[in-house]
Amino acid sequence: MINLRCPSRIEIDDIVLIIGEKYNPHKTTLLGLKTKILERYSKYIELELNGRIKPIKFSINEKNALASLYSSRTKTAKLLFDEVINVLNPNHSDCCLYCGIGEIDQIDHYLPQEHFPEFSILHKNLIPICGTCNEIKGSNIPGINGKDYLHLIYDILPIENIFDCAISFIDKVPSISYTILPKFKNSVLNTHFSELRLKERIEKKSVQYCLQIKALKEQFGSPYAKEELTRDFNKLSAFFGIYYWKTKLISTMINIDFVDNVN
Ligand SMILES: [Zn+2]
């Protein structure tokens, strides 16, 4: 989970320009929808105030026209998609904003395109994420049917410990458990964490990392493995902060003398 800076683009201009540039069978439909789209854009801000937006009805023809904006290759659309990536912090530009584990290879529509086609090219609705998160989230609507996800622009992550990380050894194999702290149990953060199956995904990645460190100890000795932990800790805490899952993992490993205790 990594926050995203608010885009500086003038999104109303984007949509007006893209419709203007676009020459295809949907152009008349899109021109007819322009006022409605702009009204919906001004409603999107309600998400910032923890509000919810309900889908509105569009005909099949209108839905197709709106979806075609996303797949359009107009000059403005291209600039917009470049900026979705450029706005990322260069220190974590390849790390999925939803999970903080996988690499970015897709763009998620926070309010899914299937239900909110009018936001198909609204910059604030486009979140660069990994394929696994995108597949799990699918076209679920945030805030409906118990599903909910952080909006990484509006939901500012707390600058404090979010979860506990515990390491134990079962038959010499490290076992890792992350638990969200009780104070966050009723928050969107907790729902995001469980809906995207982050507990199991982060735990799996953490075990892999522990095994890497164990292998380093076996190959190069304990001092080298400990230095590697310190190097990784310094790098990750500088890039992602001390509350990021992997930084938290490494600090726990250091606290329990993982290198000395793993066999
Ligand atoms: Zn992800």
Entry keywords:
2 domains; two-stranded antiparallel ribbon; 263 residues; single chain; binds zinc ion; 4 strands; mainly alpha
Structure report:
The structure is a single chain. This protein is mostly helical and 263 residues long. The protein has ten helices and four strands. A hairpin with a 2-residue loop joins strand 3 and strand 4. Helix 1 packs antiparallel against helix 2, helix 2 packs across helix 3 and helix 7 runs antiparallel to helix 8. The radius of gyration is 22 Å and the shape is elongated. The model has no long low-confidence stretch (mean pLDDT 91). It binds zinc ion (ZN). Zinc ion (ZN) binds next to helix 5. This is HNH endonuclease.
Q: Proportion of β residues?
A: 5-15%
Q: Which small molecules are bound?
A: zinc ion
What sequence of helices (H) and strands (E) makes up the elements? HHHHEEHEEHHHHH
Question: What is the tally of beta strands?
Answer: 4
Task: Give the domain tally.
Answer: 2
Describe the structure in brief:
This is HNH endonuclease. With about 260 residues, the chain is mainly alpha-helical. The protein has helices spanning about 10-20, 25-45, 60-70, 75-85, 130-135, 190-195, 200-220, 220-240, 245-255, 260, and strands at about 105-110, 125-130, 165-170, 175-180.
Topology:
Elements: H1 11-21, H2 27-44, H3 60-71, H4 75-86, E1 106-109, E2 126-129, H5 131-137, E3 163-170, E4 173-180, H6 188-195, H7 198-220, H8 222-240, H9 245-255, H10 258-261
Antiparallel strand pairs: 1-2, 3-4
The chain binds zinc ion (ZN).
Residues 96, 98-99, 101-102, 129-130, 132-133 line the site of zinc ion (ZN).
